[in-house]
Design a protein that fits this description.
four-stranded antiparallel β-sheet; 10 strands; six-stranded mixed β-sheet; mainly beta; single chain; about 120 residues
């Protein structure tokens, strides 16, 4: 079964940067649009950024200009470069296929904590 494994989270001060990675298995990784999602304590999971199979990107207004999503299909990996981090970016970050109809079981995610 195809699995997604997120990594790269941690504790960072406001204004800092982190790079998240999402490694997927399976030979069809490259054909799917992918997304990074996050869930803050007490809140619903929200979509942060998406990238198509052709590497077109889209971002939530809250992260536009600060986050960059990218992919390396040769490594079955999607990245999220996060700059100028704010305390409100604190959340567990997940990756998954963009379309609900093709979505995989959610992984454990990676925790990002922005605090001084």
């Amino acid at each position: 079964q195809v699995q997604l494994v997120e990594s790269g989270g941690g504790l960072v001060q406001p204004g800092g940067s982190l790079r998240l990675s999402c490694a997927g298995s399976g030979s069809s990784f490259s054909i799917y649009a992918m997304g990074w999602y996050r869930q803050a304590p007490g809140k619903q999971r929200e979509l942060v950024a998406t990238i198509t199979s052709a590497s077109s990107t889209n971002y939530a207004d809250s992260v536009k200009g600060r986050f960059t999503i990218s992919r390396d299909n040769s490594k079955n990996t999607v990245y999220l470069q996060m700059n100028s981090l704010k305390p409100e970016d604190t959340a567990v970050y997940y990756c998954n296929r963009r379309l609900p109809t093709s979505r995989l079981p959610w992984g454990q995610g990676t925790l990002v904590t922005v605090s001084s």
